[in-house]
Each structure stands twice: as C-alpha cells, then as structure tokens.
Amino acid sequence: MVAVTRQSARRFDGHNVTTAILPESDAAWIEVLSGIDAVVHLAGLAHEPGSAERHDEINRRLTARIAGAAARSRVAHFIFVSSIAAQIGPAAARIVIENDEPHPGGAYGVAKLAAETEVANSGVPFTVLRPVVIDGPDAKGNAALLGRIARLPLPMPFGQLTSKRSMLSIKNFNSAVSTVLFNPKAMGEIFIVADPDPKTVGEIIAAARAKAGRSAWMFNVDPRYLRLALRLMRREELWDRVGGSLVADPAKLLSIGWTPERHER
C-alpha cells in the first residue's frame, strides 16, 4: 500500500504502508500509480477559507490530473471521496438522496461536484462517495463545532430543537470504502455515506457529554429565540449548522452490502 503525502516525515508504522511525496507532474503521477490496483482519493481543500479559484485548483483540477493519470496507469478502481456538499448546502428541507438535483454548498461544494464530473469523464473505473460530516478523533467542520459546544461547562438551550442531522463515524466511513472497493455494483455509481441514525443536535451533544461521564445539562428555549440571538450576534450562518435539518439517506449504499454499526454517540 502506498500513501501519497505532502509530509516527507509522515510514517505509518505497523500498517505495511510506504509513502510517496505528492508528485508535481502528470508523468510523476503515472510513475507513482504504476502497478497500483486501486486509488482512494481523499485529499482536498476543506474546513478553511478559500476562494472559488483556489477550491477549483485543488478540489477539481488536481483531482482531474490524478484521475487521468490513474486511467493511463490502468488503475482498476478509483474511489473519489467527494462530499455531501457537492449535493446540498448545510441544511435541507427533505431527506437527501443521490437522485436529487445537486445544489452544492459554497465554493467547496461546487468544486467537489465538478471534480465528480472530471472523474467520470477520465476513463478510469470509478466510484464516488459523498460522506456527510465525519465524526472521530481530530474531527473538523460541523463535528468539531458540536464537539466544542459539548465540552463547554454550561447548560445548553437545545432541548426543543427537533431538526435532525446525519453524521458519520470514522469507523463506518472506513467500512463504506471497503464495501465499494472492487464491488461490481459500485462501479460508475455515486453513494451517499451517512450513519443510518440521524439525531438532533441536543441528542448529539448529550451523547458526547455522556461519553465524558457528564450530565446532558439541556434546557428548553424556543428555537425562534435561538435564531434571533445568532442574528443579533451576526452569526446567523451558524443556524443552518445547528438548528437546520440535514438528513441524508444511505439506502443505496446499504443495498449493495454496506453494514454500518448503529451506535449512540
């Protein structure tokens, strides 16, 4: 197994993994991919500010180069880890499925959706995964936000929030990749990846606190007042991430054999 990395000192001791420094040319990519059976493309610009041009450069154009090199190297399966942001913004009025018309969220989502098209047009046998926010050690994005809230030594006013959010444990993400790898039913397909048990923000925070041996410490505030408070603090963009609903249905992935763990957070 080969891990392509920007960090020359990065080590994967005990995992039978060798490393290669990120190639700078198409010819170098072809050399790195020579003899490789499958590629899992995880890299990208995320969870940090970036212009539309920067997102396009890293999340679309670089993906296109790698997919093209994989095709010329006769890689048997290219798994592109896209994002639910390629399909929808931070909230959705109804359950999200793969056949919905994409309405990508921000420059990141636009670039990821464009990258999916580049992969599909490259000629390499491919599968696209659209994971929701991934929860695990060193989580980022919305998972990191909810983790910070859960660690605050304060009662939380989320008891009346009924909107649910889909999340994805890192273990279930890994099993999703294993499920699609060389799976004939996954070739040329796009799959949403989400734990099958969406929860409210209050439930997510309460579960995180329970893991730490703490009380849920939740009280009720009318959601309209929470939204107003965020507006007054000029942070209304947080409302969709905390008070909005985003439930993504993984039924398509389940139908080809994915067996995620169902668990309490």
Describe this structure in words.
The protein has nine helices and ten strands. By secondary structure, it is an alpha/beta fold. It has a domain at 1-131: 3-Layer(aba) Sandwich (Rossmann fold), CATH 3.40.50. The strands form four sheets. It has a four-stranded parallel sheet, sandwiched between helices. Strands 1-2 form a two-stranded parallel ribbon. A two-stranded parallel sheet has the order 6-8. Helix 1 packs across helix 2 and helix 2 (52-72) runs parallel beside helix 3 (106-121). The model has no long low-confidence stretch (mean pLDDT 88).
Task: Supply the key terms.
four-stranded parallel β-sheet; alpha/beta; Rossmann fold; 10 strands; two-stranded parallel sheet; about 260 residues
Q: Brief description of this entry?
A:
This protein is α/β, with parallel strands linked by helices.
| Average predicted confidence as pLDDT | 88
Please count the helical segments.
9
Could you give the order of the helices and strands? EEHEHEHEEHEEHEEHHHH
Strand content: 5-15%
**Head-to-tail CA distance between termini:** 32 Å
Q: What is the CATH topology assignment of the domain at 1-131?
A: Rossmann fold
Rg is: 20 Å
Neighbour order of strands in the largest sheet: 3-4-5-9
Poorly predicted runs of 5 or more residues: none
* Top CATH class of the domain at 1-131: Alpha Beta
* Major sheet description: 4 strands, parallel
What is the total tally of β strands?
10
Per CATH, the architecture of the domain at 1-131 is 3-Layer(aba) Sandwich
- Level of helix content? 25-40%
Principal-axis shape equals elongated
